[in-house]
Design goal:
23 helices; 710 residues; Multidrug efflux transporter AcrB transmembrane fold; 4-stranded antiparallel β-sheet; 12 strands; elongated; alpha+beta; Alpha-Beta Plaits
Length: 710
């Protein structure tokens, strides 16, 4: 109840639309200079543009409609300027049948943007009139609404039901299937309360709730599934209720704790990135991870203590065998086949994953713009009408900020050279120059045609930064910064590219240390990193193939775009590496537990896969369903994230975890557990835990080998 109260009272204030970088970039420095030296930043009074077109009547009809719109906007508290008052010819289209109104939203811009949209839609319903509005705040509102819709329609209407179906099939009973789902919902509520408290000190992006819900469902269900499956297996093996709870706590719960810690540490890598959205997504994921661990380790044992064998109640026809917790016959036969031909299996899977990864070599990163939105959204409609009637104009011009003595001959000559260069670039329209009263700062504002974060605009502004500005201002003594939406998108992409290897090194390094300590084996740690990189590479390649190259995009209902969202590759890496640890630790803990008891490598591998295959596959399908909810949404960035995560985890939990890993372990034999003597000081963590009442020494007489690889 306390968590619900915190969410209801604090969560709204903790979230914002902030997605900015937190480090100093060319664009941020330009914005800072404008804020410092202009009482009003150039162009700040105008953030949205309303366009109206009359099918008949020409300029006379347009004048009448514009006059009505100005009155409506004034009643809505929105300032507007048009050609009626300014006689500015640029506010009338070339054929005279359209006009643009420049809107000043002032305070409460988000609310006023909604009012402006309502005014435009009311005018658009008039016969023979087309009206629409677009701009920064209308676009932000549309993105926020899409994020909310994607969460509701994808996760709640698709992810939850799909996860329940998988759980019912995995466990073969209604009660056992519902328990992990209920615990996941509890974990989400607790995590949202944690997020609300964190947001009071550190403002978070609204997208944090999307990530928290997805991770809460995925981890909350997976962790409960692992523990519940072990409990039922122990009961089937003859343990009483209390003993089964203790045994699952000493084994599966330890694996869950380690997996959750590894996942949270992987997410910590994203906190290093100086980006508000990355840190928000990481905060949501970590909160979900912590809450899911707590629920699985505390609430679930209590629930099992209350339910006992009633957890198997309401068995399903045809699937009731799953309720017994026996080894899977399918996976027993499959892994036996793999261990008979380990080299062929390993080579085939590795070759397939490398082939899937090849398209990553052509990956282009960028930012989703208004063009990627559905056609029925206000910002997209306004953008289309603006570009149709006023080609070359935009609500988000490029801003070239000149810091220096702008009244000097050298700087004025440099500005002239810059204007001449801009005139030679087709995508740029006529620039405007504005100086501050102190004559120590000037801003050249130049409209960029089309989508301000589209490939053409990105290329043009990149060239301007790289060549145009340095050539024009060489020797002028002025510092020049290029800002605006296009420049900010470039800075975001460059920041993500810069931090990608750093996050890679951080996550891989921590994973190596954790796995080495947990399983006391260098081989296990190295092998885990290699196979996880194969999964990530395959996900990157398939994502490029579908979204960037368009292969199967229409068939799958995705939007083909020119770029992959700049933050998606970095985020995918951390999330996939963290989630894949669940399967890896769960599988290896069972293999290590069996090997410690028998000393037989082949027997341990077969038993580990056979006893976890159904659970790992089910857990993967649940996560695929959860991220499939994102992929079914309208935001292309979430489509890419959902598809990438779903594909990677499905591959990871099937061909990688249940074919490639067993094949590699069969080839390596007892060397899987190799640890140099100089690392013998490492603590004995034993993720699999010493099974109570089970022999700790090898059963098949291979004591020396088991001692050699502890």
């Amino acid at each position: 109840m306390a968590a619900i109260a915190i969410v209801a009272s604090l969560l709204g204030d903790a979230l914002s639309g902030d997605e900015d970088l937190t480090n100093e970039t060319d664009s941020s420095r330009g914005d800072e200079l404008q804020a410092e030296r202009f009482s009003n930043q150039p162009g700040d009074d105008v953030s949205e543009v309303m366009v109206v077109r009359a099918a008949q009547g020409g300029e006379r009809a347009v004048r009448a409609v514009v006059g009505e719109l100005e009155d409506e906007l004034e009643r809505a508290g929105i300032g507007a300027s048009s050609f009626l008052g300014s006689e500015d010819p640029r506010l009338v289209s070339a054929d005279g049948d359209s006009a643009a109104l420049l809107l000043d939203l002032g305070r409460d811009a988000e609310d006023k943007a909604e009012r402006a949209v309502a005014v435009a839609q009311s005018a658009d319903r008039q016969p023979g009139i087309d009206a629409a509005v677009t701009g920064q705040f209308v676009l932000d509102n549309d993105f926020d609404q899409l994020a909310e819709d994607d969460l509701r329609n994808g996760e709640l209407r698709f992810g939850l039901p799909a996860a329940l179906v998988v759980l019912l099939l995995v466990f073969g009973s209604v009660v056992a299937g519902l328990v992990p789902l209920v615990l996941a919902v509890v974990s989400i509520v607790i995590a949202l309360a944690m997020l609300a408290l964190i947001g009071q000190a550190f403002p978070l992006s609204v997208f944090a709730t999307n990530m928290l819900t997805a991770m809460g469902l995925a981890l909350g269900i997976d962790y409960s599934l692992f523990v519940l499956a072990r409990y039922r297996e122990e009961r089937h093996g003859g343990e009483d209720k209390a003993g089964a709870i203790r045994q699952s706590g000493a084994t599966a719960s330890r694996a869950v704790l380690f997996s959750g810690v590894a996942f949270s540490l992987a997410m910590l890598g994203l906190l290093l990135v100086p980006s508000a959205i990355m840190r928000s997504l990481a905060a949501g994921a970590i909160a979900a991870g912590v809450a899911s661990i707590a629920s699985a380790l505390t609430l679930l044992p209590a629930v099992l203590g209350l339910l006992g064998d009633r957890v198997n109640a309401l068995r399903l026809p045809l699937f009731g065998r799953a309720a017994t917790g026996e080894e899977s016959r399918f996976w027993s036969r499959a892994v036996a086949s793999v261990t008979r031909r380990p080299l062929v299996s390993a080579v085939a899977v590795t070759a397939g994953l490398l082939a899937m990864a090849v398209p990553v070599l052509t990956m282009n990163t960028g930012q989703a713009g208004v063009k990627t939105l559905p056609d029925d959204l206000p910002a997209k409609q306004g953008f289309a009408l603006l570009n149709e009637e006023f080609p070359g104009q935009t609500t988000e011009p490029v801003q070239i900020v000149i810091d220096g003595d702008v009244g000097s001959a050298g700087v004025r000559a440099a500005i002239g050279r810059l204007e001449a260069d801009l005139a030679r670039t087709a995508i740029f329209d006529q620039p405007e120059v504005e100086e501050n009263p102190a004559a120590d700062l000037a801003v050249v504002r130049v409209p960029v045609a089309g989508d301000s974060v589209g490939p053409a605009a990105i290329d043009a502004v990149s060239g301007l930064r790289r060549q145009g500005v340095p050539a024009a201002f060489a020797g002028s003594g002025a510092e020049v910064f290029v800002t605006g939406d296009t420049a900010e998108a470039i800075d975001v992409a460059e920041t993500m590219d810069q931090w990608l290897p750093i996050v890679f090194a951080f996550v891989l390094g921590l994973s190596f240390v954790l796995l080495t300590v947990a399983f006391r084996s260098l081989v296990v740690a190295i092998k885990a990193i290699v196979v996880n990189l194969l999964s990530v590479g395959a996900a990157y390649g398939l994502m490029v193939l579908v979204f960037q190259e368009g292969v199967g995009a229409d068939l799958l209902g995705f939007t083909e775009v020119a770029t992959i969202e700049s933050w998606v590759p970095l985020f995918l890496f951390a999330v996939l590496f963290g989630l894949s640890m669940d399967y890896h630790v769960f599988l290896l803990s069972r293999i290590r537990e069996r090997f410690s008891a028998s000393g037989d490598n082949t027997d341990a591998v077969v038993h580990g896969v056979a006893s976890t295959g159904r659970i790992i596959t089910g857990a993967a399908l649940i996560i695929v369903a959860v991220f499939g909810g994102f992929a079914r949404g309208d935001l292309v960035m979430f489509q890419q994230m959902g598809f990438g995560c779903g594909v990677a985890l499905l591959l990871d939990a099937t061909v990688v975890r249940l074919v490639l890993i067993p094949a590699a372990m069969q080839l390596l034999g007892p060397a899987n557990w190799y640890l140099p003597k100089w690392l013998s000081w490492l603590p004995q963590v034993r993720v699999e835990g010493p099974p109570p009442g089970r022999p700790k020494a090898p059963l098949l007489g291979d004591r020396q080998r088991a001692d050699q690889y502890p």
